[in-house]
Write a structure and sequence with these properties.
single chain, 691 residues, alpha/beta, polyphosphate kinase like, Endonuclease, Chain A, 3 domains, 10-stranded mixed β-sheet, 8-stranded mixed β-sheet, globular
């Protein structure tokens, strides 16, 4: 029953290649003509931001490994250069597809619908006059044109900022010859400008890119010199943060320094307009110490995400997904306060189909209820002007014991979380930072309330962040309860996070980095033994990513024993299905649709005594060994039936599902003659209220 003696690369799929495969599935949504037009544009923008993050984190780290001769990360032990070369080829193909889609499909279809992006050669005399005045009044005052000489070298370029390299000819005011200049587009300026109604066709919206306005009038910035060309470019830099947990004595101070430095990290990628001459391309590559393979020539804006602002226009509802109003579970459709409801029954919320408002109201009521003594909560990502944070500030100022564990190392949220921590501390809250090397990724709230002669713990546990904006577009579960045993477990978890003492003897929860991995392997092994004994055995897991080799190897052995394994993995999956003698009984599918699948659910048949778990943790090495994660069991019969129904619907989806192949590629599931089943659409119909 042991796994075949395959080389590691045949046992696992490289995580970087798998992550890029996910972005291909997102791009397929943008290419799908059945998706509403503005949503297709939004998906295209998402592929751009996804690729940006991939380059500044994963590709940047891979280049560092090449420099020191280390293999690519992961159990495959493949040379970093080999992975890098493969990624470069695939990324170039993806970029070509992005711009082909934009120029050949989306721009023409948007224009037909009444949303037009005007090229400079399409401007009328009146439009040109208006844009010239806009340039002089709104743009020029905040621009800083630069020329180069030995005393004025190439200006520092901010990560992912919009810039222009300018070819010049002539002498400056001091009699010196000038050949090149640069213009940086200030971050304060909008990247797309909508023309006034009187300069647009009736019932249409006309837009102009800021880059077009600057290019057409850049000669005004270099008076006395002849401008022979102006070309947009963008640099993507290494954005990994490096904090030495053995050396740092002040995490906030160390992070602030790293955040400033990361804006100007080592260059990783150069994007340039395709019309830029070769000599200027070479000049930029040389300055940023990049090679030809790091250069991407694009036929359009160097940052497609500029277009995302257009996706939210309200004049064309038919070009967007049908609206709906978030629903509520039956238990919450009453005038009773949340404490009275939770005293009698537990509640499971499925976002975004069901509202996140009950959780906000739960914390808001706790902030003002005179019987509430303490509130404890973990924050990873929370967003600007968070109502939850406002409630916590109110509670702290009102004299309640408020403890907030804030993860300062949440990627791309570091600066926001430092500001958040300062605000809470000023209000009187106890702020505890996540442990260096062990990010606090658990999603937990505990409210301690005095009721008669005893203290009662009310808890909320989730699979997603306390971020009111992402709860509208991420699918997650939220579980609310006043269970005494669960409350005790959550209390132990908070003690672990604040006092750094291990949470032991928990009856309703599992936790990383201590008990979760071992428990998962044990449960997989139990299914394996049940299959070997002739019993039915089944595992279903829905996670965002799967790359942990211990879990993968346990699943391989379970598959060999005959366990039916169905995995719903949105993004990275290093497990290789359909390998003879190894993984024939494992199916891996990915759901990519209107909402970002974010919930984590684990199901084990357990000899007929089914076990259901929800968690903040993916089946990744980092989540299971280097993060503080929570995993909680769902035990109530009607809630287990709800989760089983949801899982089976995901497994039946034939509209937005992709199936992982042995070679690491994905094939889209096609309904054909079968009844069309879209899990996300059915959840909208079943749980939400149509608008």
């Amino acid at each position: 029953m042991d796994a075949p003696a395959l080389p590691p690369s045949d046992l696992y799929i490289n995580r970087e290649l798998s992550q890029l495969e996910f972005n291909k599935r997102v791009l397929a949504q943008a290419q799908d003509p059945t998706v509403p037009l503005l949503e297709r544009l939004r998906f295209l923008c998402i592929t751009c931001t996804n690729l940006d993050e991939f380059v500044e984190i994963r590709v940047a780290a891979l280049k560092q490994r090449i420099e020191i001769g280390a293999p690519a990360p992961g159990p495959e032990k493949i040379a970093a250069q080999q992975i890098f070369d493969t990624l470069q080829h695939q990324m170039r193909s993806m970029v070509r597809q992005q711009y082909d889609l934009l120029n050949k499909d989306l721009f023409p279809e948007l224009a037909t619908a009444g949303i037009r992006f005007l090229r400079s050669d399409e401007w009328t005399a009146k439009q040109r006059q208006w844009l010239k005045r806009y340039f002089v009044e709104q743009v020029v005052p905040v621009l800083t044109p630069l020329t180069f000489d030995p005393s004025r070298p190439f200006h520092r370029v901010l990560n992912k900022s919009l810039n222009f390299i300018v070819r010049l000819h002539g002498k400056d005011a001091f009699g010196r010859s000038r050949h090149r200049g640069m213009v940086q587009a200030p971050r304060s300026l909008p990247r797309i400008i909508r023309l006034p109604e009187e300069l647009s066709a009736a019932g249409e919206h006309f837009y102009v890119f800021l880059s077009s306005i600057i290019r057409m009038q850049v000669d005004q910035l270099f008076e006395g010199l002849s401008v022979e060309g102006c070309y947009q470019f963008r640099i993507t830099r290494n954005s990994n943060l490096y904090v030495d947990d053995e050396e740092v004595s002040d995490l906030v101070h160390a992070l602030e320094g790293q955040l400033l430095a990361s804006r100007y990290g080592a260059a990783v990628r150069l994007e340039v307009g395709h019309e830029c001459p070769t000599d200027l391309q070479d000049f930029l590559l040389d300055h940023f110490s990049l090679q030809q393979h790091d250069l991407y020539l694009v036929e359009g804006p160097v940052n497609l995400d500029r277009l995302s602002t257009v996706c939210d226009i309200e004049d064309w509802p038919e070009l967007k997904y049908r609206p709906f109003s978030q629903g509520l579970p039956k238990a919450l459709r009453s005038d009773k306060d949340i404490f009275s409801i939770l005293a009698k029954k537990n509640v499971l919320l499925h976002h975004p189909y069901q509202s996140f408002a009950p959780i906000i109201n739960f914390i808001g009521l706790a902030a003002t209820d005179p019987d509430v003594l303490a509130i404890k909560l973990t924050l990873y990502r929370t967003g600007a002007n968070s109502p939850i944070v406002n409630h916590l500030v109110e509670a702290a100022r009102g004299g309640k014991e408020v403890t907030v564990i804030i993860e300062l190392m949440a990627r791309f949220e570091e600066a926001a979380n430092i500001s958040l921590a300062n605000r809470l501390q000023e209000a009187g809250a106890h702020v505890v930072y996540g442990l260096i090397g062990y990010k606090t990724h658990a999603k937990m709230t505990m409210v301690v309330r005095r009721e008669a002669a005893k203290l009662v713990r009310y808890v909320h546990l989730g699979t997603g962040n306390y971020h009111h904006a992402t709860t509208l577009i991420y699918t997650d579960y939220g579980y609310m309860s006043s269970s005494q045993r669960l409350g005790e477990d959550v209390h132990k978890m908070f003690m672990q996070l604040t006092s750094l003492t291990q949470a032991r003897d928990m009856s309703r929860m599992l936790a990383s980095p201590f008990s979760l991995h071992e428990a998962l392997v044990s449960k997989i092994e139990l299914e394996t033994e049940n299959a070997r004994s002739g019993k039915d055995a089944r595992i279903i897991a829905k996670v965002n990513s799967l790359d942990e080799s211990g879990i993968i190897n346990a699943l391989y052995k379970a598959s060999q024993a005959g366990v039916r394994i169905q995995l719903i993995v949105r993004g990275i999956c290093a497990l290789r299905p359909s390998v003879p003698g190894l993984s024939e009984n494992i199916e891996v599918r990915s759901i990519v649709g209107r909402f970002l699948e974010h919930s984590r659910i684990y199901y084990f048949l357990n000899g007929g005594k089914e076990r259901f778990y929800c968690s903040s943790a993916d089946w990744m090495e980092r989540n299971l060994f280097r993060r503080n994660e929570s995993c909680f069991e769902i035990r109530q019969k009607h809630l287990k039936e709800q989760i089983r129904h949801d899982l089976e619907l995901f497994l039946a989806d034939n509209c937005q599902a992709w199936v992982l192949q042995r070679d690491g590629s994905y094939e889209r599931v096609v309904a054909g003659a079968d009844t069309r089943i879209s899990a996300q659409e059915m959840f909208v119909d079943q749980l939400a209220t149509p608008s």
